[in-house]
Write a structure and sequence with these properties.
Blueprint (H helix, E strand, L loop, with lengths): L1 E7 L5 H14 L4 E5 L5 E10 L2 H5 L10 E5 L4 E2 L6 H10 L6 E7 L4 H4 L2 H17 L5 E2 L12 E7 L4 E8 L24 H11 L2 H7 L5 E5 L5 H7 L4 E5 L6 H5 L3 E4 L12 E6 L5 H13 L3 E9 L5 H18 L5 E5 L7 E7 L3
Parallel strand pairs: 6-7, 6-8, 10-11, 10-13, 11-12, 13-14
Antiparallel strand pairs: 1-3, 1-4, 2-3, 4-9, 5-9, 8-9, 14-16, 15-16
Helix pairs in contact: 3-5, 6-8, 10-11
Bound molecules: S-adenosylmethionine.
Length: 364
């Protein structure tokens, strides 16, 4: 039984995260209230009554936009004295209702200025806590970037330090959560990429497609259109996979990308361009009104000009949640009416700042 849910987010987006958790809780009939602090990097939604395992499904990471990672809470904050933090935590785990069988342990802190100061402590604290859990018969592994969770209902135990004295304990089902600890994906910036924004599209591929889908949808025989392509960070992601790409933008494309012979640079308006024949991908990073970009994407989908779409929506300064939620409703309605099966996913990626990334593709 869970007392609430904790979602981490990019610091500065707590209000959006809270609005989203509240909306989701209401959809599932879980009454409660959100609790946030500006720039804390996380948000808690407390339930008025304990919620069963439906909590996992309700707050599935992929279906949430602003949550970087999410887990269900085993209770309120726990006080841990500085001279022995392990004992109260182990006691809590031992007494937690329902049998906990985590296979992974993540000792973490928020991605805020204050939280990052705790990260070295969290790493070192993992060891004595792990040893104490093993004694209790709970044999977990540390969840790090090398650890790949099996595609089962395997659980992760989250120990979330707010400061040196206060902790939230919770559980996630790894299959339903972010594939990366704390939802933070560490990608190496390729030395020959023309812009840092290349990492956004790489993260989007990893977030929205599974391994099999990536192998099929990003094979060299595919064709792509990149709207607002210059200097070419997104185009680079296709070219490095051998995918021919039409780069649409009035600006200058990176010379090295052009030398590959895989890129056709078209200096035309991205809102007026349509490909001579349907392509596998349309991606769009034009800085424009989000509603206008969403409408453009729907036109591409409607005309079946591309099989899969990835586009960025720049967030407004104010009422960001309202705007995003309205656009999602519009997208969903139009896609439903198109009569084709589709998957719509929206995510504030780790590499996104004042924008979110949207994926539309076939179902399965
Ligand atoms: C954020 S940058 C794109 C960066 C690119 N994705 C990368 O990774 O290097 C936005 C680009 O959109 C282009 N753009 C804006 N409006 C456009 C339009 N109507 N048609 C084509 N390109 C447009 C701009 O010229 C600019 O190069």
């Amino acid at each position: 039984m869970f007392s609430g849910v904790l979602a981490t987010c990019r610091p500065g987006f707590e209000k959006e995260c809270a609005a989203e958790l509240s909306e989701r809780a209401a959809q599932f009939g879980f009454s409660g209230y959100p609790q946030t602090q500006p720039d804390s990097g996380f948000c808690v939604f407390h339930f008025h009554e304990p919620v069963n395992a439906r909590c996992f499904e309700a707050f599935e990471w992929k279906s949430l936009i602003f949550a970087r990672s999410v887990f269900c809470l085993l209770g309120r904050q726990i006080e841990v004295p500085e001279d022995d933090r392990v004992t109260p935590l182990v006691k809590f785990v031992k007494e937690a209702p329902g049998k906990l069988k985590p296979i992974a342990l993540l000792v973490e802190s928020p991605d805020s200025d204050a939280g990052r100061e705790l990260s070295a402590f969290c790493r070192s604290f993992s060891k004595p806590l792990h040893a104490a859990l093993v004694k209790l018969g709970i044999n977990t592994r540390f969840w790090d970037d090398e650890f790949v969770s099996p595609d089962t209902d395997a659980q992760c135990l989250h120990v979330f330090f707010l400061n040196y004295q206060r902790v939230y304990l919770g559980v996630s089902i790894m299959r339903l959560g972010s594939p990366w600890p704390r939802g933070i994906v560490r990608l190496k910036f390729p030395a020959d990429a023309p812009s840092r924004s290349t990492l956004k599209l790489e993260e989007a591929f990893l977030t929205f497609l599974n391994e099999d889908e990536r192998a099929a949808a990003l094979s060299p025989s595919r064709r792509a259109v990149d709207l607002g392509a210059c200097p070419g960070g997104w185009t680079y992601q296709f070219v490095r996979r051998g995918i021919r790409t039409m780069a649409v933008d009035n600006g200058a494309m990176d010379e090295r990308l052009m030398e590959t012979g895989l890129v056709e640079h078209l200096k035309v308006d991205g809102f007026k361009f349509s490909p001579p024949r349907p392509v596998d991908w349309m991606v769009c990073d034009m800085v424009e009104q989000p509603k206008r970009v969403a409408e453009l994407a729907l036109n591409w989908w409607q005309a079946q000009s591309a099989r899969r779409l990835i586009f960025n929506l720049k967030l407004p300064m104010k009422k960001r949640w309202n705007e995003v939620s309205e656009i999602r409703t519009v997208l969903d309605e139009h896609l439903k009416n198109s009569g084709r099966s589709y998957r719509l996913l929206m995510k504030h990626l780790y590499h996104d700042r004042e924008e979110i990334t949207v994926y539309i593709g076939p179902h399965g």
